[in-house]
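Worked example 4.2. Below are the chains of a multi-component assembly; read each line carefully before continuing.
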Amino acid sequence: MSGWLWAFLILAGLLAAAWAFRAAGTAVTKNRPYFRDMPFTVAFGYMVAVAAVAGGLWLWFQPGAVFFRWAVQFFVAAAIAAFLFRLVGRHVGPGVTRKAFRQMPLTASFGILAILVYAILAIFAPVLAPYGQSEVVGTVNMLPGGNPATGGDPAHPLGTDQIGRDLLSRLIYGAQNTVGIAFATTCIAFFLGGSLGFLAAIIGGWFDNILARLVDVLMAIPSLIFALLLMTIASAWAGSQQWQLTLYMVFIIAVIDSTRVFRLARAVGQNIVVMDYIEAAKLRGEGLGYLIFKEVLPNATAPLLAEFGLRFCFVFLTIAALSFLGVGIQPPLADWGTMVRDLAQFINFAAFSPLAAALPLMAAGAIALLTVAVNFVVDWMLHRSSGLKD
Amino acid sequence: MSNVLTIILQRLALGILTLFVVSVVIFAAVNLLPGDFAQVILGQGATPEAVESIRRDLGLDQPVVLRYFDWLAGAVQGDLGTSFAQANFASFVGEGAARGTTVMQQIAPRFENTMFLAGVTALIAVPFAVGLGILAALYRDTAFDKGTNIFALTSISSPEFFLAYVLILFLAVLNPWLPSLSNIYDGMGLGERLQRTLLPALTLTLVVTAHMMRMTRAAIINLLASPYIEMARLKGMKPMHVIVRHALPNALAPIINVVALNLAYLITGVVVVEVVFVYPGIGQLFVDSVKIRDIPVVQACCLIFAAAYILLNLLADILSILSNPRVRHPK
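Applying the procedure described above to all two chains together yields the following C-alpha cells:
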C-alpha cells in the first residue's frame, strides 16, 4: 500500500510545485502574460517534465539500472548519429538530396541512416559475418560482452546460442534472410496488388466489381489468422521440405497483403483515369501496358511509395510473428523471429546478469529498430506530400 | 428513426453475408489439403482400410458441398466437430462409444479467457488513448506532442513480442511486481486473475494505444480550423473546454471507428501475446493446433476470429452512423 501512498504524495507535490512555479514566475517577471495567463495544466506539465528529468538522473546513478543507462546511451548515440548524418547530407551530394535533408526532422534522418545500415548489413552479410549462419563454433550459451569474467568470450562479442552458434553472425545473416524475404514478399505483393488495382481502375465494369468483392472477402479475415490457417495447409503440402515451406510463406503473405495494395492502387488509379491525359492516350490508341506504366504509375508514385514503406513494415512484422510462433522462416536459416523464440527463456536470468536478458532482446530489438526507422521515414514523407503544417 | 433502422439492417445483412462467404473461404482453404483428413490423421502408416473407415466416420465420402453445409449447420448450432488430437473414432473404440472432446468443449473456456483479456485491455487502452490524443491535440506542436508522437510511432511499429519481453524484463524479472506467466484457471478470485492478466493486457494496450491516439489527435485537429471552433475561442472559452465541448462530439465518429478497428486488431495481437505469456486463451489453442495440424480446431478458431473481426467492424459502422446527428434526426 505504501506504493500508492508514495504516488499520491508525488502527485500532490507536483500539483503544489506547479502552482508555486506559476506564482513565482508571475512575481519574478513582473506580471508577464506568459506566466499570468498560463493554464494550470501547462504549469503542471512543466513540473512533470522537471520531475521526469530529475527521476532520470537519479535512476542513472542507481547501480541496478543497467538497462536504463543502455537505453539512454543508445538514444543519445542515435540522436548524435542522425544529426551528423543530416549535417553530411546537407552539404554532400546532388542538389535534390541536399534540399531534402535541409527540411528533414531528426527522426527521419535517423530512419534513413538505420535503413542504410540494415541494407549494407543484408547485402554484404557473407563478408561481414565472422562465421557461417549455421556453423556451430563455440561453447554454448556464451553471454554477450566478450568479457570472460562476465561469462563472455572475446571471439564471440555477442555471445553464442543454445547450440553454440555465433550470435553476431546470426544477427547479420538474419538481416539478409528476414529483411530480404520480407522485401521480396512486399515486392511481389506490390506487383500483384498494384497491377491488378490499376487494371481494375482502367478496365472498370464487371472486372473491377468481381476483383473488388473478392478483395473485400479476403480482407474480412484478420491477416495473421488467415496466414496461420494457410500455413497449416502449406506445411502439409511442403512435407519435410523446409525451404518449400518458406517459399509458400512468401506467396501466402504476398497474396494476403496484395489485397491491401489493391485497394489503394485502385482508389488512386480511379482518380487518375478520369484525367484528360488518360483520355488523350486512349484516343491515341495506346495499349493497356502503356497506360499502366507510362500514364498511371508515374502519377501514383508518391502514395504508393509511402504505402510500400508501411506495407513492408506489416509484412516484416507478420513474418517475424510467424517465425516467432514457429511456422515462419525455417531453420537452419538464421532469422530474428526464431532467434527471439529460442533465446526467450534467458530473460528470466536478468536479475543475475543483465547481459543474459540482452540475448533475446537483441534480435527483437533489431526487428523493432528497422520497423521504427521505416515508419519514421514514411511519416515524414506523408507529412511532406500532404503539405500538412499542423 | 426508420431511416436509421433501415441502414442498420442493411449493414447487418451485409455483415452476415460476409460471414457466410468467409466461412466458404475457410472451408475451401482447408479442403485444399493434399490427400484428405483421414490420411492426415493416420499419417504415414495409413492402411487403405483404416483410411476408408475414418472417411466413413467423418462423412468424408460425401460430396464437398454437402459436407460444407453439414459443417455450417453444426457451427451455427455450436457443434464445431471433434478435435483430431482428442478424437476417439467409432471404428477404433466401437460403435456407440463416447466421442472425443468436441472442439466446442476445448474452445468455450478459452474463449471466455480471451474475452476477459480483451476486455481488460479495452478498459485500460481506450480511456488512456483518447485522453492522450486529446492532450496531444490541445498541446500540439509542443515537446509533449512530439514526445507522444515518437512514443506512438515506436510502439506501433515494434513487434508484440518485443514489447512483451521488455515489459516482462522490467515489471516481472527486475522488479517482481507482476507474474510473467499468466496461468489462469477456473475458480480463481477476480483480484488474482486481474493481477495475472495485467501484464498481457498492458502489452496489448501498448500495441493498440498508439493508433487510437494518433487518430483521435488527427480527428480533433481536423476540426480545429472550422468556424464554430473559432467562434468558441473568440467567446473566450478555455482551450480544454473548446476541445471537449465543441470539437470532441463532432470528432466522435472517426474516433469510435478507430477504437472499434483497434479492438478488432486486438484479435490478431492476442495470438502472439497469449503465446508469450502462456495465457490459456483461444489464440494459444490456435497456434498449437496449427503446429500439430489439428484441422477442425484450426477451422473453428479461424471462424471465431473472423466472426469477431467482422462483428467489431460492423459495430464500428453502426456506431459511427448513430453518432451522426444528421442521420439520427432527419428533417
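Take a moment to check your reading of the output against the notes. Residues 107-282 of chain B form a domain with the MetI-like fold fold (CATH 1.10.3720.10). Residues 239-277 of chain B form the longest helix (39 residues).
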